[in-house]
Amino acid sequence: MIVCMDRNRVIGTGSGGLPWKLPRDIAHFRGYTAGKFMLLGRKTYEEMTGWFTTQTPIVMTQQEDYQPAEGHVVRSVSDAIKVAADAGADELVVSGGASIYRLALPYADSLVLTVVKAELEGSAFFPSYNTGIEWRELRRESFLPDEENSFGIDFIWLERVRPEAKR
Ligand SMILES: NC(=O)c1ccc[n+]([C@@H]2O[C@H](COP(=O)([O-])OP(=O)(O)OC[C@H]3O[C@@H](n4cnc5c(N)ncnc54)[C@H](OP(=O)(O)O)[C@@H]3O)[C@@H](O)[C@H]2O)c1
Fold it and tell me: Any bridge partners for residue 73, and if so which?
């Protein structure tokens, strides 16, 4: 799973869009997802229209007749894993929003977090996760704010401590 969140796990304003401008994180997100299958909730997918280049979106919706402009449609996380596996992918990158992160966390092997060093207003959140018990930190890179990136950020890579405990 890949996410950009603030210290309180805020990921969005609730009215669409992100509560920060961080080109450094956008480059990281684009680089990490390049060439991969991405699982997205229907709302996030629609916010990202026109964004996909080498990525293949898998859109989760409850609508029977939903037709995304690109990619695949699924009704569950397990269906999305199957679509990606059947296509020969060895990774499915869960890319939000809040409802999809909540549903997919029990299936995840690794978390690629961007933590924005700020406390911002928002109404969409990443679910709580348990560092040290369920998740082990592998690596961290820190960046200070600069002219283009208004907040400092940490990129943090975590892996599940007991992979056999995932769904
Ligand atoms: N900071 C980040 O890294 C990041 C990343 C992604 C998104 N975001 C933010 O997250 C927010 C959006 O999150 P959200 O939770 O409102 O929307 P979302 O997760 O993007 O999409 C919600 C939609 O997913 C579908 N869905 C949800 N649960 C489902 C289920 N059990 N079965 C089938 N389909 C299901 C439904 O689509 P239908 O209504 O079509 O049935 C639902 O309306 C935005 O603010 C966005 O900017 C932030």
Answer: 59
C-alpha separations of 64 from 67, 73, 85, 91 in Å: 9, 10, 23, 26
Q: Could you tell me the distance, in angstroms and rounded to a whole number, from the CA of residue 146 to the centre of ligand 1?
A: 31
Q: Select from 3, 5, 8, 11 the residue to mutate for testing ligand 1; criterion: most ligand atoms less than 8 Å from CB.
A: 11
Atom index in ligand 1 nearest the CA of residue 4 equals: 3
pLDDT of 38-70, one tens digit each?
999 999 999 999 999 999 999 999 999 999 999
- Ligand 1 pocket check for 97: Cβ under 6 Å: yes
How far, in Å, from the CA of 27 to the mean position of ligand 1?
22
CATH number of 2-165: 3.40.430.10
**Mean pLDDT throughout 84-113?**
97
Query: pTM score, two decimals?
Result: 0.97
